[in-house]
Please model this.
Amino acid sequence: MSGGGSSPFLRPENMVHQTMATKINPAPRASSNISVMGRFRLACGGLAILGSLVACGSAPPLPREAPLPVAAPQAPATPATTPVPLAAPEPAATGPVLTRARSRWVPVTWSELAGLEQDNLDQAWNAWLKSCERSASLPQALGALCPQVRVLSIAGPQQQYAWLQSRLQPYRVESLQGEARGLLTAYFEPLVDASRSPQPGFGVPLYAPPAGLANRKPWYTRQEMDTLPEAQTALKGRAVAYLADPVDALILQIQGSGRMRVQQPDGSSRTSRLAFAGTNEQPYKSVGKWLLDQGLVKDASWPGIKAWLAQNPQRQQELLWSNPRMVFFREEPLSDMDADYGPRGAQGVALTAGRSIAIDPGSMPYGTPVWLVSGGAQTQLQKLVIAQDTGSAITGAVRADYFAGWGAQAGELAGRLKQPLQMWVLWPK
Model:
């Protein structure tokens, strides 16, 4: 696990992406705006140099096309024969192919990144600013860009786009064997109702790490935690909260973190974050795959799993015990500012809904800006994202897990998204 991060191995379960239909209203999506005061401070210090940042490397404007000649009124309509001058072609990409542990980067022209000019770059800039909060942890070439990234957070999209072209070189990400297509999945932060103490309707505990838990050493399995007296003794007094549904608890453990909403004595509710705090170091086994392998379901999404359990309640424990892995949590306060972002990823910074991805660090380093393209039945994506997280199931050159946000709507996308992917890294020249 990266220092300060909370998720390199908190989501190994994303081998099979599933979701559920919750009874909870979805939380609002993450804000795409940084604070007004923050922008004002940046404006005061940055507007004076903003033009020079963009101008020092901006490409000259392309020549306008000459207008077609207008035929004289008395002449019959005939096709124009005067040639129309074409825009100057973009220079061919130059430079060496860069090789990393699990990928190679092939230099390309900016024209290969179709749709980048239409992207809402301001949203991506918010995620980039988060990575720059830990600029010392970034590769030197990326960290050196952070002062300009901060200044450009108050710029318009045309200035941001011009700066990208002047300072960065796009590279197509491929496997070491030259395969440029891979897999995109998604993950999310569940939002669940909970109780501080066991009571009717809330009897499924979520635990903090037990005192005897040793790092990287296997502890009791999920089944042993439910049945062995010595395991139950070790867990006594370690419950953080209680949920109503064991499947909801399992989803929370699979995602590795979440938000819980607890009703207060005065009738109000309070939302806090359940952050990843460790595991029992047992192997993860997908309950969806367990059902599929036995031919019990054809739909292994969370709605499909819940539908099967409704018809087979006597097999609930059997299904849960098929996954021996257990995740432990710690509760963290959730301020209004924190609520606009997700949990901390492996880079140690808060994730931005729709703009953060989990990647294989052997393919690219944390903090790398990435142009992501994916199309399929669930969604069409062409957007600038930042590599800020990982997971033990996220392996390979062209492999990414898209942070969809929190709540039921994000969970629906995360549970069903599994489609082709292409990626281009934007690396300093």
Q: What stands out?
A: The first helix runs from residue 36 to 55. The two ends are 30 Å apart (CA to CA).
